[in-house]
Amino acid sequence: MTSPTEELFGSGSATGRLMARLDWAATPLGPVQSWPQSLRAAVRIVLSSRYPMLLLWGEQFTQLYNDAYSALIGDKHPGALGDDVRTTLAEGWDVLAPLIHDAMATGVASWVPALQLLLDRSGYREEAYFSVSHAPARDDDGRTVGVFTVCSEVTEQVVGERRLGLLRDLSVRGDGRTVDVTSTCARLVEAIGGHRLDVPFAAIYLREGSALHRVACTGDGPVAAVLPDVVVDGDPAWGLWAAGGGATTEVHGVAQWMTLPAGAFDEPVATAVALPLPSAEADQPLGVLVAGVSPSRALDEAYRSFFHLLAQQVAVAMRNARAYEEERRRAEALAELDRVKTSFFTNVSHEFRTPLTLMLGPLTDALADERHPLPPEQRERVDTARRNATRLLTLVNSLLTFSSLEAGRARSRAQQVDLPELTAELAGVFRSAVERAGLRLEVDCPPLPRPVALDPANWERIVTNLLSNALKHTFVGRISVGLHAHPTELRLTVADTGMGIAEEEMPRLFERFHRVDGARSRSHEGTGIGLALVGELARLEGGDVRVDSRLGRGSTFTVALPWSALHRGTDDTVAASDLGDTARAVAQEASGWLADPVRPESAEEGSPGTLPDDGRGVRILVADDNADMRAYLARLLTAQGWRVDTVGNGRQALDAIRRDPPDLVLTDVMMPEVDGFALVRTLRGQPDTRALPVVVLSARAGADAAVEGLDLGADDYVVKPFTAADLVARVRATLEGARRRLRTPDAEDGRPEPPRSTRPISAAPSPAPPATGPVEASSAGAAMDSTPSLTGTAEATPAGAATGSSPSLTDTAEAGAAADPAAAAARTMDGAMSDVAPAVPGQPVAGPRRAAAPAGAPTTVQVPNGHGTASVVDTGWSYPSEATSASAMRRDVRTSLEALHVHPDVVQDLLLAASEAFNNAVEHAQQPTRPEVRVQLQVGAGTARLTVRDFGTWRDRRSAMDRGRGATLMNAFGDVRLMSTASGTTVTIERRLTDDQG
C-alpha cells in the first residue's frame, strides 16, 4: 500500500524522489502527514510542471521545487530542498526579498523580466539573469502563507545582446573613414571601454617590423602601467608574442600584477586573453588584442567565441583604416599633382600670352597696313599665321579659365545683359559655318519677362562650346538654339540631329579630357575640355547643365539657371556687340573642318618639280583635317612643281586613291573617321596600293609613335613642327626611292614592284666579269657560310685591284680565317666602294678605284669560288649622310628581303634594327671623310646580315651595347657588333631566318 509521502511525491521526477526521502519532520513544515491540503496541492502543481517553479511556504520560506528549477541553482541543489531560501540564495536575497514580501503582503502577483541576480552556483560569484513571477500561495483558510515563484534564465540572451552592442559600437567607431590607424585604435579601445561588464580592459598592439608596439589601451591607470610598451621576439609577457604568431593565449594570474575591480559585482580581474588580429596572411597577423575576462562570467566557449569576433572586428577596422590611409595618401598625392598641374597650366598659359601678343599684334598690323600692303601670296601666309595664333590664344584662355575654376579662384562678374540678343548674336557667328556644312541653324530667343544679370564672358564660352560641339558631330539636319523663361529657371537649349551619345558614355560626358571613343566627328582637333568647361561655368553661374541624347538621333544640351541666381551684379548693361571675340575665333576654326572632299592644288607653270625619267608630273595626295595645314602643305608642295590634291580625312583619302592613285600620300595621324595609321594599314593590305609611297605627319613625338607608323609600312614619319626644307627633302627622297624601284629590271610593266612581292631579286648566277668592269648584281645560290669570307676578298685585293688581277681562293680563305666579322664587313665595303667622288647618277661603277654609287644606288661585291661565279646574295647601297635617306634605305632593304621570301616578322625586325643603326651613323659620325652611309645586305645559310658603315669619328666612343635605348632596340632584333676605326664605324646586325628561308 502506497504511503502518503510516496503518494504526494510520486511524480517520477528525480527531485520528487529526493523530496520523498527527505525527513520533513526536521523542517519547519513538519511531517508530510500534517501538511494541509493546500500545501499538498501546491506541491503537486510544482512537481507536475516542466517549467522552473519554486514554492516558498511558511515564515521560514521553506523551499520545494521541481527538476527544471534544480538546474538553475547548480551546486545549491539538493541542499536547498526543505531549507530557508534566505540561506540558499543569501547572495541574491537583497534583490529577491522585496518581490517576495510584496507578493505575500498584497496578494498580487508580480512579473520582472531579466532580473539580475548574483549567484554562487558554479564555484564563483556569477552574473545571472532571470525572468521571474511571484504569486501568493494560500492555505486552507485562504490566508497567504507562501509564494509561488515561476522563473526562466535569460542570462545568455542578455549577455549576448550586450556583446552584440559592443560589436556594433566597434563597427561605428572603427569605420576608418576619417582617422588614421593610430586614431582608429584609440577609438576602438574607447568603444571597448564602454562595455566593462564584458571586457574589463583592452589593449591593441600592432606589428612594426620585428616587434609589437602598444598603440592604445583602455584608461591610463593600472592597465597602462603593467602592459609592456614593446614586445620583442621571445618575450613571454602576457602571451603577446605567441598571439603575434597567430595563437590565442589565455593569461592567468592577472590579479598578481594589478588590482582592477570589474564585472557585475566589482571583483578583481583574474584572467585575460591575447588574440591575434587576422590579416590576409594567416601567419602574419596585423597585431594583437589583449582583453580582460569578466570575473562574473565563466570563460566558456560562448565567451571565447565572442572574443574571437571582437578581434576580427578590430582587425577589420584596422584594415579599413590602413586602406583609408593609403587611399588618402593617394588622394593627397593626386591632389598635389592636380594642384601642380593647375599651377603649371596657369603659369605656362600666362607665359604664352606675352609671345602671343607679340605675334598677333604685328601680324594683325601687317594685314591692316594700307600704306605697305602685302602681296597676295604673303598675305595668305600671314593670315594663316594670324588665324592659328588666334586659335592658340583661345586655347590658352580656355586652359586659364579651367585652371582658375579648378583652383577655386574663378569668380562670376555679373552684369546686366540683354541675354536673348547676346545669345542670338553668338549663334549668328556660327551661321556661315553651319550653312556651309549643309545644315540649318534655328534660333529662338524671345524677350525675357524680367532683366537678368550674369557674367557675359562665361555665357559666351558656354554658348560657343555647345555650338562648336554640335557642329563637330552633326552631318545632316539642323542645329537649334533656344532661350526660354520657365517658372523657376531660365533655360538655354542647344539641340542637334547629330550622331548622339551612347548611354554608357553619359556619366563621363562632362569629365575633363574625356573623349567618346569611336564617335564620328568632323575633326579630331581639340583639348577635350569644352563640355567640362560648360559644366563648370554653368555651376559658377549658379546653375547646371543637362543632356538628353539617343544614339543616332541627336542630342539636346540644356543649361538651367534659377532666377535667384540671375538678380545680382551692377546696373551696367553690356551690349552684345561688345562681345563675341571668342565665338568668332571658334567659328573660324570650325570652318576649317568643312573641307571639300578632294581639292586640287596645281603646280605653277614652269616650276622644276618633275623628276628625271618620270614621264609625267608627280601628284601628291594630302590628308589632314585642319584646313590651314592642308593649305600650307599644298602651297609647300606645289612650289616644288608637284600637283597636290587635299582631303579632310582618311576615308576621303581612300576614295580619292581608288578613283585616281597618286604618286605619294602625305597624311596626318589624328583624323576623324579613318585616321592616318588606319589609312596606312588599309593601303598596305591591298595589292594595288601596297607599293604606294606614304609619308606620315604627326604631332605625336617619340620613338614609339614613329615605330608604330613605320611598323605599319609607312615610308617615313615626320614629327610636327617641321621645317619646309625638311619636309620637302623627305618627300623627295621617298619619291626618288619609289622611282629607283620603278627603273629596276623587275618592273617590266612600268609600275613599281609591290614591296611584299615574293619574286627573287636576281637571276641565275653569271660568269664573273673582269675586276675593271662594271659591278653587276650577285645572285642567290650557295650558302653564305660555305663561301670565302668577304673579309678575305677585301684584304687580298688592294694590289690586285690596281693591276686588274684577281686573288686566288687560297689567299682569300687564309686572309679571312682570323678576321672579325664586323671588321670584315667594314673592309669589304671599303673595297667594294672606294673613296673617289660619287659617280654620275645612272652611270656604271667601274675601274680599279670605283666611285661611290649615287644615293641609294645598289652596288655588289663579287665573291670568287672554285668555279669563278658569285655564290651568295651580297647587295649594297650608298646613301647621303642625311636623316631623310633612312626611308629610302628601309624601302630598298625591305624589297630585297621580301623578294627572297623572308618571313615578314624577320623583315620587320631587321628594318627596325637597320633604321636605328642608320640614324646613329647620321647622328654620331663627326666630320666624315665621305658624306655617305653604306648599307650592305647578305643573305644565305639561314642567316641575314646587315652592315651599316659611316666614315666619321663618333662623338661617343663607347660600345654600342652601352649606348642606351637605341642599342637595346637593335639587340632586341638581332646579334649586334660594332667596330670603330679611325676611318669610321661599322655596325653589323645578324638575324637567323626560319628553316625554309635563305
Structural domain tally:
5
CATH class of the largest domain: Alpha Beta
Which CATH architecture of the largest domain is right? 2-Layer Sandwich
- Estimate the strand proportion: 15-25%
Q: What is the CATH third-level topology name of the largest domain?
A: Heat Shock Protein 90
Specify Rg, calculated over alpha carbons: 49 Å
Mean pLDDT: 77
Total count of strands = 35
* Low-pLDDT windows of residues: 602-615, 745-871, 957-965
Biggest β-sheet: strands ordered side by side in the sheet: 8-7-6-13-12-9
The N- and C-terminal alpha carbons lie at a distance of: 123 Å
Number of helices: 29
Main beta sheet: strand number and arrangement?
Answer: 6 strands, antiparallel
CATH superfamily of the largest domain: Histidine kinase-like ATPase, C-terminal domain
Coarse shape: elongated
The amount of helix comes to 25-40%
| Secondary structure category | alpha+beta
